[in-house]
Design brief:
The protein is mainly alpha-helical and 173 residues long. The protein is 67% helix and 0% strand. The chain is built from 9 helices and no strands.
Amino acid sequence: MSAARIPPVEPGTRGDLAAIERSIIAERGRISPLYETLLNSAPLAEGWEKLLTAIRSRSSLPPNVRELVILRVAVLNRAPFELEAHVPHARRAGISDEKIRAVEAPDIGEPFDDAERAVLAFADAMTRDVQVADAVYEPIARRFDAQGVVEITATIAAYNMVSRFLEALRIGH
Protein backbone atom coordinates (compact mmCIF):
# COMPACT_ATOMS: atom_id res chain seq x y z
CA MET A 1 0.00 0.00 0.00
CA SER A 2 1.46 3.35 -1.08
CA ALA A 3 1.04 6.51 0.92
CA ALA A 4 -0.84 9.44 -0.56
CA ARG A 5 1.49 11.86 -2.30
CA ILE A 6 -0.17 14.98 -0.89
CA PRO A 7 -0.98 15.33 2.80
CA PRO A 8 -4.71 15.57 3.45
CA VAL A 9 -6.13 18.61 5.21
CA GLU A 10 -7.69 17.56 8.50
CA PRO A 11 -11.27 18.88 8.47
CA GLY A 12 -11.89 21.58 11.04
CA THR A 13 -8.25 22.69 11.29
CA ARG A 14 -8.43 25.72 8.98
CA GLY A 15 -11.02 28.41 9.54
CA ASP A 16 -10.72 29.62 5.95
CA LEU A 17 -12.08 26.26 4.77
CA ALA A 18 -15.07 26.05 7.13
CA ALA A 19 -17.69 27.12 4.57
CA ILE A 20 -16.37 24.72 1.93
CA GLU A 21 -16.23 21.88 4.46
CA ARG A 22 -19.85 22.57 5.48
CA SER A 23 -20.92 22.47 1.84
CA ILE A 24 -19.12 19.16 1.24
CA ILE A 25 -20.66 17.63 4.38
CA ALA A 26 -24.13 18.90 3.40
CA GLU A 27 -23.91 17.17 0.01
CA ARG A 28 -21.92 14.06 0.91
CA GLY A 29 -22.44 13.53 4.62
CA ARG A 30 -18.69 13.49 5.31
CA ILE A 31 -15.37 14.70 3.99
CA SER A 32 -13.76 11.77 2.18
CA PRO A 33 -10.02 11.32 1.59
CA LEU A 34 -10.55 12.77 -1.91
CA TYR A 35 -11.96 15.99 -0.49
CA GLU A 36 -9.36 16.11 2.29
CA THR A 37 -6.75 16.24 -0.47
CA LEU A 38 -8.71 18.75 -2.56
CA LEU A 39 -8.89 21.06 0.47
CA ASN A 40 -5.24 21.87 -0.21
CA SER A 41 -6.71 24.18 -2.88
CA ALA A 42 -9.86 25.91 -1.65
CA PRO A 43 -10.99 27.07 -5.13
CA LEU A 44 -10.59 23.58 -6.59
CA ALA A 45 -12.32 21.88 -3.65
CA GLU A 46 -15.27 24.24 -3.97
CA GLY A 47 -15.53 23.93 -7.76
CA TRP A 48 -15.07 20.16 -7.68
CA GLU A 49 -17.82 19.76 -5.10
CA LYS A 50 -20.24 21.85 -7.17
CA LEU A 51 -19.47 20.02 -10.43
CA LEU A 52 -19.65 16.54 -8.95
CA THR A 53 -22.83 17.39 -7.02
CA ALA A 54 -24.45 18.53 -10.27
CA ILE A 55 -23.40 15.30 -11.98
CA ARG A 56 -24.32 12.94 -9.13
CA SER A 57 -27.41 14.63 -7.71
CA ARG A 58 -28.86 17.13 -10.13
CA SER A 59 -28.72 15.53 -13.57
CA SER A 60 -31.63 13.82 -15.28
CA LEU A 61 -29.68 10.60 -15.95
CA PRO A 62 -31.23 7.51 -14.40
CA PRO A 63 -29.10 6.52 -11.38
CA ASN A 64 -28.39 3.07 -12.81
CA VAL A 65 -26.96 4.58 -16.01
CA ARG A 66 -24.86 7.07 -14.05
CA GLU A 67 -23.45 4.44 -11.70
CA LEU A 68 -22.83 1.91 -14.47
CA VAL A 69 -20.60 4.34 -16.38
CA ILE A 70 -18.85 5.46 -13.17
CA LEU A 71 -17.99 1.83 -12.37
CA ARG A 72 -16.75 1.23 -15.90
CA VAL A 73 -14.52 4.31 -15.88
CA ALA A 74 -13.05 3.21 -12.55
CA VAL A 75 -12.30 -0.24 -13.98
CA LEU A 76 -10.74 1.12 -17.18
CA ASN A 77 -8.58 3.58 -15.26
CA ARG A 78 -7.53 0.96 -12.70
CA ALA A 79 -8.95 3.06 -9.87
CA PRO A 80 -10.00 0.59 -7.14
CA PHE A 81 -10.80 3.28 -4.55
CA GLU A 82 -13.33 4.83 -6.94
CA LEU A 83 -14.76 1.43 -7.88
CA GLU A 84 -15.22 0.37 -4.26
CA ALA A 85 -16.73 3.75 -3.35
CA HIS A 86 -19.39 3.41 -6.05
CA VAL A 87 -20.43 -0.22 -5.63
CA PRO A 88 -22.89 0.69 -2.83
CA HIS A 89 -24.32 3.50 -4.99
CA ALA A 90 -24.66 1.05 -7.89
CA ARG A 91 -26.53 -1.44 -5.73
CA ARG A 92 -28.88 1.31 -4.48
CA ALA A 93 -29.48 2.23 -8.14
CA GLY A 94 -30.63 -1.34 -8.81
CA ILE A 95 -27.54 -2.71 -10.53
CA SER A 96 -27.20 -6.40 -9.76
CA ASP A 97 -24.05 -7.95 -8.33
CA GLU A 98 -23.79 -9.95 -11.55
CA LYS A 99 -23.59 -6.71 -13.58
CA ILE A 100 -21.23 -5.11 -11.08
CA ARG A 101 -18.86 -8.07 -11.56
CA ALA A 102 -19.38 -8.08 -15.34
CA VAL A 103 -18.44 -4.40 -15.68
CA GLU A 104 -14.89 -5.51 -14.82
CA ALA A 105 -14.62 -7.73 -17.92
CA PRO A 106 -12.36 -6.48 -20.71
CA ASP A 107 -15.23 -6.60 -23.20
CA ILE A 108 -18.85 -5.82 -22.45
CA GLY A 109 -21.36 -8.50 -23.33
CA GLU A 110 -23.59 -10.53 -21.05
CA PRO A 111 -25.49 -9.83 -18.81
CA PHE A 112 -26.06 -6.32 -20.19
CA ASP A 113 -28.97 -5.37 -22.41
CA ASP A 114 -28.57 -3.36 -25.62
CA ALA A 115 -29.05 0.01 -23.90
CA GLU A 116 -26.48 -0.81 -21.22
CA ARG A 117 -24.00 -2.07 -23.81
CA ALA A 118 -24.41 1.19 -25.76
CA VAL A 119 -23.75 3.29 -22.65
CA LEU A 120 -20.76 1.16 -21.67
CA ALA A 121 -19.33 1.31 -25.21
CA PHE A 122 -19.60 5.11 -25.04
CA ALA A 123 -17.77 5.13 -21.70
CA ASP A 124 -15.12 2.81 -23.13
CA ALA A 125 -14.56 5.00 -26.20
CA MET A 126 -14.37 8.23 -24.21
CA THR A 127 -11.98 6.71 -21.67
CA ARG A 128 -9.76 4.61 -23.90
CA ASP A 129 -9.75 6.57 -27.15
CA VAL A 130 -11.01 10.09 -26.25
CA GLN A 131 -12.51 10.51 -29.73
CA VAL A 132 -15.84 8.71 -30.14
CA ALA A 133 -16.73 7.10 -33.46
CA ASP A 134 -20.14 7.85 -34.95
CA ALA A 135 -21.08 4.18 -34.66
CA VAL A 136 -20.60 4.41 -30.87
CA TYR A 137 -22.20 7.85 -30.50
CA GLU A 138 -25.33 7.24 -32.57
CA PRO A 139 -26.93 4.70 -30.18
CA ILE A 140 -26.46 7.26 -27.37
CA ALA A 141 -28.02 10.03 -29.45
CA ARG A 142 -31.03 7.76 -30.19
CA ARG A 143 -31.54 6.92 -26.48
CA PHE A 144 -31.05 10.38 -24.94
CA ASP A 145 -32.18 13.89 -25.74
CA ALA A 146 -29.61 16.72 -25.92
CA GLN A 147 -29.64 17.19 -22.14
CA GLY A 148 -29.12 13.48 -21.58
CA VAL A 149 -26.25 13.30 -24.08
CA VAL A 150 -24.54 16.23 -22.37
CA GLU A 151 -25.09 14.69 -18.94
CA ILE A 152 -23.83 11.21 -19.79
CA THR A 153 -20.81 12.72 -21.58
CA ALA A 154 -20.06 15.01 -18.62
CA THR A 155 -20.46 12.11 -16.17
CA ILE A 156 -17.96 9.97 -18.04
CA ALA A 157 -15.56 12.89 -18.45
CA ALA A 158 -15.85 13.92 -14.79
CA TYR A 159 -15.24 10.44 -13.46
CA ASN A 160 -12.21 10.11 -15.70
CA MET A 161 -11.00 13.26 -13.94
CA VAL A 162 -11.84 11.78 -10.52
CA SER A 163 -10.11 8.46 -11.11
CA ARG A 164 -7.03 10.05 -12.63
CA PHE A 165 -6.74 12.50 -9.72
CA LEU A 166 -7.13 9.68 -7.19
CA GLU A 167 -4.56 7.48 -8.89
CA ALA A 168 -1.99 10.20 -9.65
CA LEU A 169 -1.96 11.27 -5.99
CA ARG A 170 -2.43 7.73 -4.61
CA ILE A 171 -5.52 8.67 -2.65
CA GLY A 172 -7.10 5.67 -0.94
CA HIS A 173 -4.12 3.39 -1.56
